[in-house]
Amino acid sequence: MTQLPTSTTRKLGLVIDLDTCVGCHACVIACKGWNTENYGAPLSDQDPYGAAPSGTFLNRVHSYEITPKTGPAQLVHFPKSCLHCEDAPCVTVCPTGASYKRVDDGIVLVNETDCIGCGLCAWACPYGAREMDKAAGVMKKCTLCVDRIYNENLPEIDREPACVRTCPAGARHFGDLGDPGSDVSQLVATRGGIDLMPEMGTKPVNKYLPPRPRDTWEQTDILAPFLTPVSETPQGFLGWLDRALDRL
Amino acid sequence: MAGSTGRWTGSDMHPAPSVILFTTLSGLGFGLLIFLGLGLPAVTGWTAFGFFLIAYVLAVGGLMASAFHLGHPERALKAFTQWQTSWLSREAVVAVAALLVMGIFAAPAVFLGLRLPVLGGLGAALSLATVIATAMIYTQLKTVPRWNQILTPLHFGSVALAGGALLAGQLTAAAVLLLAAGLIQIGHWRVGDTRFAEAGHTLATATGLGQPGRIRAFEAPHTGTNYLLREMVHVIGRKHALKLRGVALTLGYLVPLGLVLIPGAGHVLGGLAVLSHAAGMAASRWLFFAEAEHVLGLYYGRHG
Fold first, then answer.
1. Stretch 43-62 of chain A: residues touching chain B, C-beta under 8 Å
2. Residues of chain A predicted below pLDDT 70
3. Banded model confidence at residue B4, pLDDT cuts 50, 70, 90
4. Which of left, alpha, beta for A106 (phi over 0: left; psi -120 to 50: alpha)?
5. A196, B207: Cβ pair inside 8 Å?
6. Interval A44-84: pLDDT, tens
7. pLDDT at B11 over 60
8. Fewer CB near the terminus (10 Å): N or C of chain A?
9. Is A92 in contact with B86 (Cβ distance < 8 A)?
10. Superfamily designation of domain B17-300
């Protein structure tokens, strides 16, 4: 059913901390590992050990460089997967009803037995969150590990998305973003969580926590001012060499 | 494939030939059906059979070509269910309705010499609606600002009408429509060229990392290519964009316009005009897809 629900009971989603992410790609591997052998068609690879490897991933980590007006450049690792948008354009364009958004928890899913592999949903997504699997010919996307989070065969600690469970930096958080009292909602409120491409009007459920301002030396050590170099002009042998080369 | 800089420099990027073929051929086919439905020309018997055969081969052939684009063509019937929200589903429903109605209109015209103008008018309207629905599939995508403009359905519609007039031998109508379609084509390119910048999507809005300071893509998530880049981030067509625009404008509009304006233009010149127009439209459609800049390219450091 490609008509979006007017509201969902819960808004399950991820909060990704760009300040904490170290760019290790463990979430990418954990995601691929879990999702290639559980729900739906496997995430195939083409030419994985050859010259031109390519494959289906539901989560990918970009890296961006920020150059502030003052201070050193900063590298920001940027994991990106389906944002489970409230106004998901990928769902309404689907001609078969394979794409849908669940009323109970807001998860956006693809019913793979109904998917004709037209690719229009991937075109409608601004975030590049959907990938057609080349071997299966159906659209793959993040399921928020729907087969983990409700899975009573797993120990309770494992009932969260594989990417969140594996993150060694604690940069990924999972919860109900529709509940203002939930841990994830509090985190978003405290850290000023943001939407990606808000001008698209997709109302993403997943939020990103922007990197915090970096400390400066003055802030970290009261002795810092005393540690500045005393003399910029070289002394001794280096001083002689410098003067000798100047004279040449 | 994987450059030493970590930047992806793929080679496997091209708009799907089946989709180019589909929109070009089916546009011509449904365009001809529009004119046949309106009784321009009001044909019966074997002449009508010939006209309808050409129209159906083009329209149905185009639909078949589009089915080859699917990952699971055997499930194509499911695409008729979601017409309430999906333009692709609407296109499927309206296309089949148009082909059925025009079939019912064609049969008595061919075999009994009987023309049912009301049915023909309905079929013509459905045929035009099919072309517009096809255009809306692209127009609705906010993710491709170049397509997300009012001139996209006007472009598809005017081209189908011009091609249909050529095939139907309506030379005066063809001349006027070719001129109009050519102007809309130029307008679509001109407006499209600035749509991305006007929409205001940047790497800063895409990542939320606009403040403070400048941001650039440092490293792609993968050394190889992927579905997204193959399907939606083309560069090859863009390299020759200006030449291809010249080819599309010359073959698609100017040459056929010149040919239909020759007094007493017969079947040979008319046929040449159709072939030239179809070739020009194939170039135009190639560009339509090749120049489509998807906002997801921003995440990969495209579009500045």
1. 51-57, 60-62
2. 1, 217-220, 225, 228-231
3. very low
4. left
5. yes
6. 999 999 999 999 999 999 999 998 887 788 899 999 999 99
7. no
8. C
9. yes
10. Formate dehydrogenase/DMSO reductase domain (1.20.1630.10)
Q: Which of these ranges, A185-194, A200-209, B178-187, B265-274, has the smallest mean pLDDT?
A: B265-274
State which residue of chain B sits closest to A211, comparing Cα positions: B209
> How far, in Å, CA of A10 to CA of B277, rounded?
54
Q: What is the DSSP-derived secondary structure letter of residue A4?
A: P
Instruction: Give the phi and the psi of residue B244 in degrees, each rounded to 5.
Output: -65, -35
Token reading at B46: 């074997």
B31-52 in b/e form (b: 16+ CB < 10 A) is bbbbbbbbebeebbeeebeebb
Closest to B259 in 3D by CA, of B171, B182, B187, B176: B171
Q: Rounded to the nearest 5°, which phi and psi values hold at A55?
A: -165, 175
User: Looking at chain A from residue 79 to 108, which residues have their Cβ under 8 Å from any Cβ of chain B?
Assistant: 80, 89, 91-98
DSSP A134-149: TTT-SEE----SHHHH
Tell me how long chain A is.
Answer: 248
What does the block give as tokens for A139? 């659209």
Domain ranges of chain A: 12-219
C-alpha–C-alpha distance, residues B100 and B118, integer Å: 14
What ipTM was assigned to the predicted interfaces of this complex?
0.90
Name which of B12, B136, B195, B218 to mutate to probe chain A: the one with the most chain A Cβ atoms within 10 A of its Cβ: B218
How is chain B split into domains, by residue range?
A: 17-300
Q: For domain A12-219, give its CATH number from 3.30.70.20, 3.40.50.800, 3.30.420.40, 2.40.30.10.
A: 3.30.70.20
